[in-house]
């Protein structure tokens, strides 16, 4: 006799008896509390809930059920549902550059293109932002739609009142879209700072603003550090500093350490005076490595003559502008192959 089988049957029998007892107890409680009656046939049905199997055919509509959606800032998800997103794409807005900014995403989805955005687009068009440049403008300054439209008109009127021409305003707005998001008082203070610090005339401050509007709205701490570097570390006087600002304002935006490296090479290795550097200020915007390669090639060819009072003069600007082909052909009077081989030998 297989005692293990007998033991198993006895255990199962005990489990069934216990289960039936529990069901009977539940029925008694329901009858007492809710006056619910059960037939004898229902006893085992309570423990035999009819659930579909994994391979059973399902006729129920489950279209409303989907995976748990985690927070997303991807504009593509809303392209089919949002007319605003589609219109922004048509304008050329580079939405992928803005996806990391949740505030921008939520703003775009909350705005109606026709009623909320078109007045701003019309304003930008009136300011000289051409249709082909609208996408670039909005990409650079999407929060323009959060500005009060009357404030924007006031900021343009301020520039006109200070004799900025229509063409100047167009250049400022197109070159540096964030300008319009600065309050009038802030712009006025910044223009005053540059005019006072560098002793600029009205014409000169307008020229700097038009040539490099980003400079006017740049981080003032970095502006002051760059000014210190130009005047104290590099040793340019007031006149030379003003000359650099007027002709190469991006020197104040470029990393200070890189500007100092370039100046050090120009002044100590190439032996250029402060006067020559300030009159060729854009050389300070060049990477030291590019400047060094070209200068050393001219030294090899004995053509490194940077004094404008002597024959065979080579303007320092010619070392930093143009392609390598132009440099070799017009300045070094050599071939590109010879120049490339020289660079490899360094």
From TrEMBL:
Pfam family, one: mTERF
GO CC, any one term: mitochondrion
A GO MF label: nucleic acid binding
Keywords noted in UniProt: Transit peptide
Ranges in coiled-coil conformation: none
GO biological process, one term: mitochondrial ribosome assembly
InterPro entries in the record: MTERF, MTERF_sf
PANTHER family assigned to the protein according to its UniProt record, in alphabetical order: CGI-12 PROTEIN-RELATED, TRANSCRIPTION TERMINATION FACTOR 3, MITOCHONDRIAL
Family the entry assigns: Belongs to the mTERF family.
Name assigned to this protein: mTERF domain-containing protein 1, mitochondrial
Organism: Eufriesea mexicana
Taxonomic placement: Eukaryota, Metazoa, Ecdysozoa, Arthropoda, Hexapoda
